[in-house]
Specification:
Acetyl-CoA acetyltransferase; alpha+beta; Thiolase-like; 2 strands; Thiolase_AS
């Protein structure tokens, strides 16, 4: 609907507890398709905390 068209979030389906693997795998596949050397995966991990991981293709 209209709300979905205005949203700026990325929704990726995944099993409970598998967010990190899902986001990292998606990023690595995208890096390969775009021939990118570096990629950054970020996640909210609750209670005002966050985590970030930098991937490098070698």
């Amino acid at each position: 609907g209209v709300a979905a068209a205005l949203a700026r979030a990325i929704a990726l389906g995944h099993p409970l507890g598998c967010s990190g693997a899902r986001i990292s795998t998606t990023l690595i596949n995208l890096m390969e398709r775009k021939d990118a050397q570096f990629g950054l995966a970020t996640m909210c991990i609750g209670l005002g905390q966050g985590i970030a991981t930098v991937f490098e293709r070698v």
